[in-house]
Design brief:
The protein is of the alpha+beta class. It has two domains: 1-34; 39-190, no CATH class. The protein has three helices and ten strands, in the order αββααββββββββ. The chain has helices spanning 3-33, 63-74, 93-104, and strands at residues 41-49, 54-62, 105-109, 112-113, 116-124, 127-134, 145-149, 160-168, 174-181, 187-190. The protein has a six-stranded mixed beta sheet with strand order 5-6-2-1-8-9. It has a four-stranded antiparallel beta sheet with strand order 4-3-7-10. The termini are far apart.
Length: 198
């Protein structure tokens, strides 16, 4: 192979390397721009604790969705690191999540809004568990429960929030209600038919 052939091979090899590099960069860019998951869903379980006389709520959400919502809610810049669940987590994370939850998740029992207090969170890579609990309160069961959950509706058009309510009637039998809430139906009523003891 002459000098001209060697030059052609070098140019071809160099061109192939550049093409491979550009393709690799393109693939990384596409993956980075793609959403981390192709559906937007949360689940909130609300249990009546008969011993403590409190409502206890657990919201299960995608961590990246939560970070996006907290950035929007607090007005943080896009590049501001939150690092939820990390040793270097943003110091204002818990108070920001609490304020966001108070705005988007409400429960009325016996005709009155229930004040839910932030308990804390657990972050397991892509899923976060957010915990709230009410103060001790009587449960009369005279009016339907009313639950609203508008989490992530500002961020995603296709967001679905499952809400699962649990309580007990006066005979100790468990009662539950599950609804899938969307932008078109962000709330629901549940006639528990709880009859208090005489």
């Amino acid at each position: 192979m002459g000098a001209q052939g060697t030059d052609l091979v070098k140019r071809f090899t160099t061109s192939r390397r550049w093409l491979g590099l550009l393709c690799g960069i393109g693939i990384v860019a596409v993956l980075a721009a793609a959403p981390a998951h192709n559906f937007h869903f949360s689940r909130t379980d609300v249990h009546w604790n008969q011993e403590a006389l409190t409502l206890q709520a657990t919201a299960r959400v995608f961590t990246d969705d939560l970070e996006l919502a907290i950035r929007h809610h607090t007005g943080l810049e896009e590049g501001h690191p939150l690092w939820l669940g990390d040793d270097q987590e943003w110091s204002g994370a818990d108070s920001a999540i609490d304020a966001w939850l108070q705005q988007h998740v409400t429960i009325h029992v016996d005709g009155a809004p229930v004040e839910m207090t932030w308990v804390g969170k657990e972050v397991e890579l892509d899923v976060s568990y957010l915990y709230l609990e009410s103060r001790p309160m009587p449960l009369k069961g005279t009016e339907p429960w009313h639950a609203t959950n508008t989490m992530f509706f500002a961020e995603f058009d296709d967001q679905v929030n499952e809400v699962h309510l649990h309580t007990f009637d006066s005979l100790g039998q468990e009662k539950e209600k599950r609804e899938m809430l969307t932008r078109d139906m962000p709330a629901f009523l549940w006639d528990v038919n709880f009859v208090p003891d005489e």
